[in-house]
Write a structure and sequence with these properties.
Chains A, B: GO terms for molecular function: DNA binding; DNA-binding transcription factor activity. 2 copies of one chain form a homodimer. Chain A is an alpha+beta fold and about 110 residues long. Chain A contains 6 helices and 3 strands. Chain A has one domain (about 5-105): Winged helix-like DNA-binding domain superfamily/Winged helix DNA-binding domain (Arc Repressor Mutant, subunit A), CATH 1.10.10. Chain A has a 3-stranded antiparallel sheet with strand order 1-3-2. Chain A binds a DNA duplex (30 and 30 nucleotides) through helix 4.
Chain lengths: ~110, ~110
DNA sequence: TTATTATATAAGCAAATTATTATATAAGAA
DNA sequence: TTCTTATATAATAATTTGCTTATATAATAA
């Protein structure tokens, strides 16, 4: 069982204590995504999405790779928080239906 | 593995994404406490503490029992969130040293 | 009864959060 | 080069949060 000190944990829980970011992380746990996919999924402005993923990136729980015009985000399995996050996500129902909706609309970009 | 829907989980994580409340819950996991003990532990005003425990009570993760003048708070093991919270708390280092400090000052009230 | 102790509630305020629109930057296509 | 697409950053506004002080309520002791 990985242990994370209490202040860091509080910070992490606050970060994940937002419906949008929590759903993002749950989705990234099984599929990489780019910003424009999240924009569709969450019906949110592109800067809004960018700000959320930046917060996730700032604490190192997601990482990015540029692929042409797109920046692909994925869960950072090297993060010190990864085991903790895994445990947490296991309690959440799959959000893959959101990806399926995207595919049905022909709006899926990343192929992972 | 207990599953909690994503919106409720986000709400719960936001609630626990505060250092004071997270520490309270970690302590309550092993020992019941009253408000005045928390006031000492967190060097915070009594209304400040009361407001934190009320938030925890409002979503049902802690319960209260009056014992004379004191109101004793404990983790509510019947909460739908209890299994989730247990998993989460297992990643946290014990905060019992805070209780020991209280005892050394002769300020421990509840005996559980 | 009055005084004391423990807790809760109300009001106020500064700081943080989450969204928006406007604009800048980066990559690829024409 | 210019145009389009994808993303990031800046500035701003509305809301929420987390504390404080002042006050109310509840239980016990004198």
């Amino acid at each position: 069982m990985s242990t994370v000190e209490i202040e860091k944990t509080a910070m992490l829980l606050k970060l994940l204590g937002d419906k949008t970011r929590l759903t993002m992380v749950k989705i990234l746990d099984s599929h990489d995504c780019c910003v424009c996919e999240f924009v569709e999924m969450f019906k949110m402005s592109q800067p809004g999405v960018s700000q959320h993923v930046r917060k996730l990136k700032d604490v190192g729980i997601v990482s990015e790779t540029r692929r042409g015009q797109w920046v692909i985000y994925s869960l950072n399995k090297q993060s010190e928080y990864y085991p903790f996050i895994q445990d947490l996500l296991n309690h959440l129902p799959s959000q893959d239906f959101k990806l399926l909706e995207l595919e049905e609309q022909g709006l899926r970009i990343s192929c992972d």
